[in-house]
Q: What sequence folds into this?
């Protein structure tokens, strides 16, 4: 799929041009990074998805020192986080800020959002919940979403480190893109899968404990860095590919 087709299909769904451009940028970045489950395949997926309003605007509900609470207001999660990230770049915290985003789904490739913050000079940690698709490795009901965790660390060298890992052996995006079967969606780690399950469950409860309205959400921490550790790490790594490198 090229940009012309992608943008045309997004506009046909009712997204304004700026929002269509933002969505295409997200999907195309994922595609180019080899994350096809979050890439172009998400456009036909959106064409069959219900429950979002392409004209809706996210709302800032509450703001105090070091804290913001946002609500999706019917907007799709990609654009909610896009708005939240823009606000942090325009009005960065004095030191650190915790952001709780209610009714924010789907959120896509979380590394996309923390990379934007890192490029803007901010440290960030982001997680988001999704439909419960992971159960205990020993069996039983689905208790947690795949609940990815993304971390972005800026660098004076202009090459941030971006960590973005889902707790599933495959992602739901892989299923959407036809790259995996739903039964393959289990906690990663094989015999050590209980570790991934524990992290997924912890992140699920972390977000659920902070949102006031039932539904999928996201929690983001942004901070101004006090040091610049990435260049020294890259020197130590001696050319080894680090997370998020192209």
A:
């Amino acid at each position: 799929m090229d940009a012309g087709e992608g943008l045309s299909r997004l506009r046909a769904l009712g997204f304004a041009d700026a929002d269509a451009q933002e969505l295409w940028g997200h999907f195309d970045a994922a595609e180019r990074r080899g994350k096809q489950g979050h890439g172009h395949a998400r456009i036909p997926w959106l064409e069959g998805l219900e429950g979002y309003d392409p004209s809706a605007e996210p709302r800032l509900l509450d703001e105090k020192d070091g804290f913001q609470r946002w609500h999706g207001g019917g907007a799709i999660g990609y654009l909610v986080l896009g708005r939240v990230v823009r606000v942090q770049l325009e009005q960065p915290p004095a030191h650190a800020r915790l952001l709780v985003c209610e009714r924010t789904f789907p959120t896509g490739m979380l590394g996309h959002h923390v990379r934007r913050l890192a490029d803007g000079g901010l440290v960030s940690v982001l997680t988001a919940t999704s439909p419960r698709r992971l159960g205990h490795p020993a069996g039983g009901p689905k208790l947690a979403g795949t609940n990815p965790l993304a971390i972005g660390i800026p660098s004076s060298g202009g090459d941030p480190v971006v960590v973005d890992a889902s707790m599933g052996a495959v992602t739901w995006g892989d299923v959407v893109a036809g790259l995996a079967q739903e039964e393959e969606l289990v906690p990663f780690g094989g015999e050590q899968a209980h570790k991934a399950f524990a992290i997924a469950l912890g992140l699920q409860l972390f977000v659920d404990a902070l949102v006031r309205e039932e539904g999928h959400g996201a929690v983001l921490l942004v901070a101004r860095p006090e040091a610049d550790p990435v260049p020294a790490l890259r020197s130590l790594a001696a050319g080894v590919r680090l997370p998020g490198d192209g």
